[in-house]
Each structure stands twice: as C-alpha cells, then as structure tokens.
Write a structure and sequence with these properties.
Elements lengths: L1 E2 L11 E7 L4 H11 L5 E8 L5 H9 L3 E3 L8 H15 L3 E4 L8 H4 L6 E5 L11 H7 L4 E8 L9 E8 L6 H24 L3 E4 L4 E2 L2 E2 L4 E3 L5 E2 L6
Parallel strand pairs: 2-3, 2-5, 3-4, 5-6, 8-12
Antiparallel strand pairs: 1-9, 6-7, 7-8, 9-10, 10-11, 12-13
Helix pairs in contact: 1-2, 1-6, 5-6
The structure holds 5-O-phosphono-beta-D-ribofuranosylamine.
5-O-phosphono-beta-D-ribofuranosylamine binds next to α1 and β6.
Length: 236
C-alpha cells in the first residue's frame, strides 16, 4: 500500500493541505510564501491552531488563508477536543496535513487513518533529541552537528519514518537561542522542499517506508545548499 499523490505544476490539480500550528508560525509563513511565488503546487486549505493568541493566526489572516482556532479549553476533555480536530480534518478533504510547530500529542487511534498523509517538522537530527528543548539538549550533549528533520507522523512522538534532514554545525559559543536562530531558515527550506516532493508526486509513503521516485528511501534525504533534497544513505 502506498500513498502517492501528485499535483500537476502546470494547471492540474494542486495538492490540498491543512497546517496545524500552535505558535509563531514562521514555518507556516514559509509554506505560504512558497505557495504564493509558485514554488509549491499546493493549496493551503486551512490553518488549524489550538491557541487563539498564537501569532500564526495573524499570519494566516494577513495572507487571507482560512483559519480556525480549536481551543482545548472549550472542550470537555482531551478526547472531545481530539474528536473535533480530526472531524475538522476529515471535513477539509485534504491530502496532506503538515504539523508546523503543533504542540499537542495526537491520539494513536485517530492517526491510523492519516498514516502516510501527515508530516511534522522537528528541530533536531532525529532520532537524537525527540521532544522539547532540542537546542539546549544538543548543546548539553556536546553535539557537533545539529539540525532539523521532517518525518511522517506516527503514534510514537517524533519517531515516524524520516523523510529529510538539514544539518548545521554547532559553534563553540552557541547558546540555545543562537542555535535556534541559525537553524530556523534552514528549517523553512527543509519543510518547503519536503512538501514540494510530496506535492509533485515524487515522495510517497509505503508500508515499507518512504519511497522517492518509486525507490525505497534508506535514510533521510539531505538538504543541499542549493535547496534540493538528495539521498545520502545507500540501501543495504
Ligand atoms: C519550529 O522550530 C519547528 O521545528 C518546531 O516548532 C517550531 C515552530 O516554529 N516543531 P514556528 O512556529 O514555525 O515559527
């Protein structure tokens, strides 16, 4: 089974995506910009945010993109919130959901239906440093390289199949803030390039792992300085 969907860059169907985000929204803004300037053959159907005060809501508003706030406080419990969230996603009829700084753990049961159609961007070189405070943890661990990963979402937080990574060097005087700031632009490029491969039908999820141009991916693609994603690992 595979989930390969292509969008024709020249006049054909564009990939319908929804974005889930909780905060600043710079990754969301990068997708919007790439969509606007024609680099990404996608339609961002809706932004779903779980915090009404999150700056990402203003980003969507300014860009004229439909957005909705589903505030967990408006729901009886977590299960009711999750039901509302996934009902919303179902209603949107999107092919891909992008988690761009969405700070909630999603329920395994609901994720089953979205396997291979939901991706996340995480600010570390997974499997190193899943979870929070990744920049501080990379420094504490003495890592010489840091980076960001895009991966398919699975029930285990930050552990789904890796799609692509970008690496940066850790410098001697780095702080968590300086590392985060230096990484951010690379994160944006990584997310846009990953979504682009999916939108153009070149990257698919399969039960055997991600496929690039029909070939099994044996390790995450690496973002090159020219913005392209290239395989670096040879298959055994
Ligand atoms: C990014 O670092 C992303 O990798 C992580 O959350 C942060 C969101 O930043 N998942 P922004 O809201 O996209 O600016």
């Amino acid at each position: 089974m595979s989930a390969c969907t292509s969008a024709e860059p020249h006049g054909g169907a564009r990939l319908r995506i929804a974005v889930l985000a909780s905060g600043r929204g710079s990754n969301f803004a990068a997708l919007v910009e790439a969509c606007r300037d024609g680099r990404l053959p996608i339609d961002i159907v809706e932004l779903i945010c779980d915090r009404s005060s999150a700056p990402v809501v203003g980003v969507a508003d300014a860009a004229g993109i439909a957005h909705v706030v589903l505030d967990p406080q408006d729901y009886h419990d977590r299960a009711e919130f999750d039901r509302a969230l996934f009902a919303r996603l179902d209603a949107l009829d999107v092919t891909l959901v992008v988690l761009a700084g969405f700070m909630r753990i999603l329920p395994a049961r609901a994720l089953e239906a979205w396997h291979g159609r939901m991706i996340n961007i995480h600010p570390s070189l997974l499997p190193r440093h899943p979870g929070l405070h990744t920049h501080r943890r990379a420094l504490d661990a003495g890592d010489r390289e840091h980076g960001a990963s895009v991966h398919y979402v699975s029930a285990e937080v930050d552990q789904g199949a890796l799609i692509a990574q970008v690496m940066i060097g850790v410098e001697r005087h780095d702080t968590p803030a300086s590392l985060a700031a230096r990484l951010l632009g690379h994160e944006h490029a990584l997310l846009v390039a990953s979504v682009n491969l999916i939108a153009r039908g070149r990257l698919c999820w399969s039960a055997h792992g991600p496929l690039l141009d029909g070939e099994r991916l044996c390790g995450p693609l690496r973002l090159c300085s020219d913005g392209h994603l290239l395989p670096v690992a040879a298959c055994p």
